[in-house]
Design goal:
single chain; about 500 residues; mainly alpha; two-stranded parallel ribbon; 21 helices; 2 strands; about 70% helix
Length: about 500
């Protein structure tokens, strides 16, 4: 006898399905990270803390050394004091075998911030069920982690990743707190304190998410004024003031001007803003909007439709043109700092947070635009839940099919598949073994001038940068200081 699908359990089955896929996808990433080790700026920013730990094994001495690095960099290189403090505490200072904890910390920050934001936005504000909220959370995390623009700088190179992923995660958590304040007045003091602490940290981090935070806080203040919510306006304004102080200290650092002198082309403020709109079109809408984004839209859309149709609040969704335009301006603004300071759109670690913001804005725009349609035209054309479930089942099946095809042809397109490939073919193990040979030389007190062989294996996700055959190269100088050598030099492999 043919059994019919139990429609009441579709969302339950789906949350299990996507949850298992997401959790399993994390396993090769975490396993691969255990073969990783610090390099380049990881070493440069943690010389003081490494020496403090080796000499004293005292955590307070390590924290003091991190503060020393912040004070030094503030004067001679950059004002991102909050990020530099965390850079100085890269986990590898306690031993190369602990460097992988950085990847675990980055994943934890991303997962928690996304979970909290989705809980507040989809759960408290829109009123979606817990199962649907979790499905959206798993989908966002899967797409965000698997398709980072620069996967190495996003999860495996601690210095670059902590400078961008941590502040972006804090910004998303802050957005969740502000939204929570609008729908739930309980624990207002606690939320304000946490919001202020997050705003201070974001303001002292990278300038891309720092500026983005200011833009979103300004929007929050404007909305509270227009909606005549004086108490909420005061709370958001207080958070904005602390962000402004922190961000101002960041921007005013003497080191920022020293660093700018390293770049020969600086287009100025007006041209930087104009170029930002161009690069947003080129990168976000041109290069990044491909099959992945199409799949993301198709997968998220049924939840946006269902949430809007069941929405019980009084939000009017009145500006269908203004919101997408605002979203484009927000994304464009994330290119501005790099163009103004360095003359170009930035590096992969910057693209990562722009990409994650793009995914968030896609989700918000789907909800808003369907909300406008529903309020204006759709109240009599409700999409039945069974049809929404069929849409989800079909789109999930199509997505899995596309994932399998692309992973089979281009494994490096997926963070997890690329990690599994490096583990299974042995290159991660070989890479780590070669590093351990280097460490044995670098930690040998009898060797003052270290000669290190070039890596024969360079895993796609793990390898970022290496020293060079020049003892005066900045990476060589930082490595020699980190390990207390007179010099280090790369012995390049002979090519046939």
């Amino acid at each position: 006898m043919k059994r019919n699908l139990n429609w009441k359990k579709v969302w339950k089955y789906s949350v299990i399905f996507w949850g298992v896929i997401f959790v399993v996808s994390l396993i090769p990433i975490i396993l691969l990270s255990t073969y990783n080790f610090p390099c380049a700026d990881d070493l440069g920013y943690s010389i003081y803390t490494r020496h403090a730990w080796v000499d004293t094994h005292n955590l307070f001495s390590v924290l003091g050394a991190a503060g020393r690095k912040v004070a030094e960099s503030y004067q001679i290189w950059q004002g991102t004091w909050a990020s530099i403090f965390l850079m100085a505490l890269q986990p590898g200072i306690f031993g190369d075998g602990t460097y992988w904890i950085g990847t675990l910390m980055l994943l934890t920050a991303l997962i928690f911030s996304v979970y909290y934001f989705m809980k507040v936005f989809w759960g408290k504000w829109l009123g979606s069920s817990k199962t649907q909220r979790f499905i959206v959370t798993f989908l966002f995390l899967f797409f965000g982690i698997q398709f980072l623009i620069d996967k190495t700088q996003g999860l495996f190179w601690y210095n670059g990743a902590c400078h961008y992923i941590f502040p972006w995660s804090a910004l998303l958590a802050l957005a969740g707190i502000v939204v929570s304040m609008t729908v739930d007045s309980r624990h207002g003091k606690r939320k304000s304190i946490i919001g202020i602490l997050l705003a201070i940290y974001i303001g002292g981090g990278n300038l891309v998410t720092g500026l983005e935070c200011g833009i979103w806080l300004a929007l929050g203040i404007l909305l509270t004024v227009l909606c005549h919510k004086k108490k909420l306006m005061g709370q958001v304004l207080k958070i904005a003031v602390f962000w402004g102080i922190s961000f101002g200290l960041n921007v005013a650092a003497p080191g920022n001007w020293v660093r700018q002198e390293e770049f020969s082309y600086r287009p100025g403020l007006i041209r930087s803003v104009l170029q930002s709109f161009y690069y947003c079109l080129d990168y976000v809408l041109g290069q990044w909007t491909d099959w992945k984004i199409i799949l993301f839209v198709i997968l998220i859309a049924p939840f946006a439709i269902h949430a809007v149709q069941e929405y019980k609040g009084n939000f009017s969704f009145r500006f269908p043109v203004l919101v997408p335009l605002w979203s484009y301006c927000v994304l464009a603004s994330m290119f501005t700092e790099s163009i103004y300071a360095g003359g170009g759109p930035g590096a992969g670690r910057i693209y990562n947070v722009i990409f994650l913001t793009y995914l968030i804005l896609i989700m918000l725009n789907l909800v808003y635009l369907y909300g406008w349609y529903w309020k204006k035209y759709g109240s009599g054309k409700k999409v039945e839940e069974k049809d929404i479930q069929l849409w989800h089942i079909a789109s999930a099946a199509g997505a899995v099919f596309c994932f399998l095809i692309v992973a089979g042809v281009t494994p490096d397109a997926f963070t997890s598949v690329s990690a599994a490939k490096s583990l299974l073919n042995g290159e991660a193990q070989a890479y780590r073994a070669q590093e351990q040979e280097r460490v044995a030389i670098l930690e040998d007190a009898s060797i003052e001038n270290a000669e290190l062989k070039e890596f024969q294996n360079k895993p796609y996700l793990l390898f970022y940068e290496d020293i060079e055959a020049d003892t005066n190269n900045w990476k060589n100088v930082r490595m020699s200081s980190y390990y207390r050598k007179n010099s280090v030099i790369l012995i390049e492999s002979e090519t046939e």
